[in-house]
Design goal:
One of its GO terms (molecular function) is hexuronate transmembrane transporter activity. By secondary structure, the protein is mainly α. The chain contains 15 helices and no strands.
Length: 423
Amino acid sequence: MESAVMVSSRVTSRYRWTVCALLFFATVINYMDRQILGLLAPILQKDIGWTQVEYGRIVISFSAFYAIGQLCFGRIVDWLGTRVSYAVAMVVWSAAAMLHAAAGSVAGFAFMRALLGLGEGGNFPAAIKATTEWFPRRERALATGIFNSGANIGAVFAPAIIPPLAIALGWRAAFVIIGAIGIVWMVFWLTIYRPADAATQAAHEDAEPAHVDTGTGSPGWGVLIRKRQTWAFLLGKFLTDPVWWFYLFWLPKWLNEARGMDLQHIGMPLVCIYALTTIGSIGGGWISSTLLSIGWNVNRARKTAMLICACCVLPIAFVSRVDNLWAAVVIIGLAAAAHQGWSANLYTIVSDLFPQRAVASVIGIGGMAGAFGSVLFSEVIGQVLQRTGHYWVLFVIGALGYLLALSIMHLLVSDMKPARLDA
């Protein structure tokens, strides 16, 4: 007769993938709400009358408050737990997404984007915390890659659904309908999700000892910011997140301005680009998880996967010289896919370097740095395009950021030694 422990283990094994599915759908919604502004920018630019610089500053308002949201929610998640904090974040960002329909000016859109950013800042601290609790170390990069691929699926669905919806019902209705999806997810989340018990969490750590940590409770920002492991993640996000946000917010405008495509025709290229990123997100996590399973250590497995991703980004430096639209789409798709593979491993590194009680807080600190980098880059983008109208320099910056980030990270955590928070 099966023991209660064996039955419990089997049920837990199945349930962790249910958790992964919930995180995946939340991330789909997160990115659909985030991307709708970029997709409707050609229509809104005519209705509202904003300039390139004003559009850049609307993007900045989201980025700035997304930074604040990630920092604050990192602490909230470690304090309140994943279940409650994730639900709060979803309510805030879904309400903000729907309220875009009431905006009628540059200032109005900037305010709604700020509120959206504040709520969306809770997504990744909560999701990575849940993954750390429910998955053993050898599976975390793969699980992160799977739920993070929701960003790509959201980016695929968004151009396929939102422009036709806006054309048929108007852009205000599009904001309301897409925003309301998050409320539906929240009902499922509160009904289905339960936190991992202490035995499950301990089993994951005890099976693969890495953290020597005798402390309790969530450590403060002052403790974490003094650790070189925190700075490795922080700088990795600061140097590479702005590139991904460039893809999200400016690719529709690039297709419109540099390739002459209108709202009715930009959907298919964007769908193809973000379909490729789904492969990259899961593939990047699969690479390091596979290398761990064949006996590689964490340091070698994670950094090898990230180096492969960094090299795959390099061709985008030359995309402005490519005349054929679909060749350019493939190059951008490869770079975007590589970013998501990079991101799956970068997020997972936090659980390699820190105990569970600090994971969400460190994710929040790094997320804030990534969003702050995006604020700076958005201003650069707006000024460059306003003055020159050329995108090539922006693609070159995007191509080089990953190798620079990996080099700095290797200098800071050459051996991937876990942080000592109780020392």
